[in-house]
Amino acid sequence: MAGKNDLDSSKKSKAPPKMGFSDLAKREERLALRLLLPALLIILLIAFYPLAQVFYTSFTDRVFASGEETNFIGFDNYRRLLSVHVTELEPVLDETTGQQLTDPDSGEKVFERPLDILPREPVRYRELNQFNLFGKRYVIGATDTNFIESVQNTLTFTVISVFIELVLGLVIALVVNSKFRFRGSMRAAMLVPWAVITVVSARMWEWMLAPSRIGMFNALFDRLGIIESPIAFLASGGYQLSALIAVDVWKTTPFMALLILAGLQIMPEDIFEAAEIDGAGKIRQFFMITLPLLKPAIAVALIFRTLDALRVFDIFQVMLGQSTYSMASYNYFQLIGNRNMGLASAIGVIIFILIFVFAVSYIRMLGVDEE
Amino acid sequence: MKKGAGIFNLIKRIAFNLMIIFILVYLLFPFYWAVNSSLKTESQLFMTPATAVPRDPVTLEFSPTFQNYTTVLQDGQFLRGLANSTIVATSTTVLALVAGSFAAFALGKLRFRGRKPALYLILAMTMFPQVTVLTGLYAVITALGLSARISMIFSYMIFTLPFTTWVLTAFFKELPDALMESAQVDGATPFQTFRRILLPLTAPALVTTGLLAFIAAWNEYLFALTFTSIDPAARTVPVAIAYFTGAVARQEPFGEIMAAATLVTVPLVVLVLIFQRRIVAGLTAGAVKG
């Protein structure tokens, strides 16, 4: 709000002589509303009802595609999704010696079984994870471990893939922005990964990552002698997330690169000429001029990439099926598989809130909405 | 001294070219693999180890097949899908660019109350996963009685409009205010300023945004699948491909899917190559000399 006053005074100075200040401000305001009208109408027409419905349904037990009566159940869906319980696991003692028992097979110390001590009421808690702190063993339980895991998966996926995409996208954009002969073709080639239909691209990668030598990667690694036996990249465990991150980075780096490239292209060249004359080196120019001027382009690219990554659905659904969920693919499973529309809507709202937090922090950090 | 600089430049050029080759291989290799797979028969696809070009399983001679392509092209669904996708993605892009650039002009260059709420409202529209809004959207579309193609165009606004608006707002804001002021002094109406100054100066951003939005609409699957369920004639390419059935029952026609992917991607990229210069040139034509 502080900006408003000096804004107004600056407006006064640019107003044509005969026009009063408030007159001009009003005209500008009216023009702005007229310009925003189409976008706002579209939002009202197409987005308002579905979004309002999601919020409302998230507080009910509505069943998808059925005539069953819907009840208002307050925060129950949210409670079921988000309830987490941490509790200490007592060591199991040998009755005669009073020492903690060790497992004869693995040699590990024995603790209580998490299932015995995690709460069962009102909903049963399942084990999510165990950890050690100050020599004590704790267990984390959750009422919906699948959902909590899907949040962890999605966040890990988002942070790593968006970061790699930003770095790669920046490098590619800088390379393509320098003048060379095949620059136009290069820019078109850059579109290829983004242009391959997402669902098809997921199938393509699934094929390339096949767990035997019919897959490109296993055939290649085998030829190079890197691996002893084929790797099951997409099987539960180790490589799943890394494989999906690699696929996503390939597919969407062009998005990042093209937006950054557009930012580079509208930069006025005389700034660089001036810097050249001032004797600033290339690296100095990059950090002092290019990067700050690129900030708005990078910011919007980051916002939309992060938003997309947090909603990631296609590649999890196609490549991992039901073995590992992202938030959105768990959402899909609850809606279509379990027909639990109330719960699915609550997942949607949680995703919305998470995305909102990310978006606002980017906007604040990068100063996008500053005047 | 001079000779040293020459060698240094040579190394720099080689390094630069290596970099370009590396980037190209990284971006294009998976697509090459799709093309490669599209030229293989069922039995060639399942050869171990996988071959980098289609080879005869016995003699290992180079032997591509075009069977997948003929099958795909004879499939009426696929060609109709191409037409549908073109109509839907083009309309989506035009609508998102027009509404988005108007809104972005207001949000990026005009002063008015409610600017920030409007920005956030537009972004909030795209913060839900598609699955979540699907049922509500379906209800809206049924209530309004929209056809499948029109429903797709409007529902794609959910992810394209916030994108075009935000990107263009960011780019418009970067342009110096002095440009607009001098146009105003010259007696230009705000709309003329927008058309003659803002649009040409941000032409590369406009084209890029349009392209990215076009492809996002082109690739969309879930909405298209839902809204065309009652009108199969309106199916877009991704849905048509999903409905491919193999010659052998229950076996997925992987070669055909890859052939379809190739047939869809290559023309798209060639069109981009042809058009990008023209669009930029066309937009820049009316620009004022800074």
Structure, explained:
The complex is a heterodimer of chains A (371) and B (290). With 371 residues, chain A is mainly α. Chain A has two domains: 84-143, no CATH class; 150-366, MetI-like (MetI-like fold, Orthogonal Bundle). Chain A is built from 15 helices and three strands. In chain A, a hairpin with a 2-residue loop joins strand 2 (126-133) and strand 3. Chain A starts with a helix and ends in a 5-residue tail after the last helix. Chain B is mostly helical and 290 residues long. Chain B has two domains: 1-65, no CATH class; 68-284, MetI-like fold (Orthogonal Bundle). Chain B has helices at residues 2-38, 42-45, 67-74, 76-109, 115-124, 130-144, 148-174, 177-185, 190-201, 203-219, 222-227, 237-242, 254-284. The longest helix of chain B is centred in the N-terminal third of the chain and has 37 residues, at 2-38. The model of chain B has no long low-confidence stretch (mean pLDDT 85). At the A-B interface, helix 1, helix 2, helix 6, helix 7 and helix 8 of A face helix 1, helix 4, helix 5, helix 6 and helix 7 of B.
Notable characteristics:
heterodimer, A: 371 residues, mainly alpha, MetI-like fold, 2 domains, 3-stranded antiparallel β-sheet, 15 helices, 63% helix, 6% strand, globular, disordered N terminus, B: 290 residues, 0% strand, flat
N-end to C-end Cα span of chain A: 10 Å
Total domains of chain A: 2
Overall residue-averaged pLDDT value of chain B:
85
β-strand number of chain A: 3
What is the tally of helical segments of chain A?
15
| SS summary, helix count of chain B | 13
Task: Using the alpha-carbon principal axes, give the shape of chain A.
Answer: globular
Strand tally of chain B: 0
The Rg value of chain B, from CA coordinates, equals: 24 Å
CATH class type of the largest domain in chain B: Mainly Alpha
The percent of residues in helical segments of chain B reads: over 70%
Largest sheet of chain B: none
Protein structure class of chain B: mainly alpha
Helix/strand order of chain A, N-terminal first: HHHEHEEHHHHHHHHHHH
CATH topology of the largest domain in chain A: MetI-like fold
CATH topology of the largest domain in chain B: MetI-like fold
